[in-house]
Please model this.
Amino acid sequence: MTSATPSGPAIRVKSITKSFKDLQVLRGVDFDVQSGSIFALLGSNGAGKTTLVRILSTLLKADAGTAVVHGFDVATAPNDVRQSISLTGQFAAVDEVLTGRENLVLVAKLRHLKNSGEIADDMLARFSLTDAGARKTATYSGGMRRRLDIAMSLIGNPPVIFLDEPTTGLDPQARIEVWQTIKELANGGTTVLLTTQYLDEAEQLADRIAILHKGTIIQNGTLAELKQLRPSAKVEYIEKQPSLEDVFLALVGETATTASNGKELS
Model:
């Protein structure tokens, strides 16, 4: 991985636009992500989250605007960007025929790293998968598969990782396991950009939250800052502070149609 150290934010996005024929997906997106933080990009299906991640990871070219990741421009220095990042998609990209350890060894060899076996063993221990390392990943639970997927993406110590809806389809216990893994990444200095449509996920994990709606960032701030956008809590017998769901629905101009505890945006 590249050893370059950015002088500014780990990720800087300025006026990014992207259209597919007549469909305008991104309409001028701006935000910064500080090094070693967890930044949540929160939005419903079709808001443009995955398109933006694909641009930042050099898989797609923006129509206009600039994006810098770990000090490198995604348009003019794509190879340097790729050496600085890892991308974990919505579904675990593990080979079910191989064991957990074999998956890790394979990735280490593909990255031309020495001591691939030691690297695999270290990753299994780091992600609490040592006991399952010799089992085929087809036998893993959803949470174990996702943890292995993240472990594979971290081989080579990339300073920036993109997690595109990492808990999609997981049960509550598996989601908690992945949340803990993400927190540990940030505690270790990794910069995490997380896309999610789960309100409680952003609330639990993120240092800052940007709400992406119809291709543009409509608000960006800490959880506390976003909660200030709602009217003051009404005091009756108890004081009810606004939740992130209250803030999100107020900003996008929609009414609550889901339960407030752990539901997806629709």
Remarks:
- The two ends are 38 Å apart (CA to CA).
- The first strand starts at residue 11 and ends at 20.
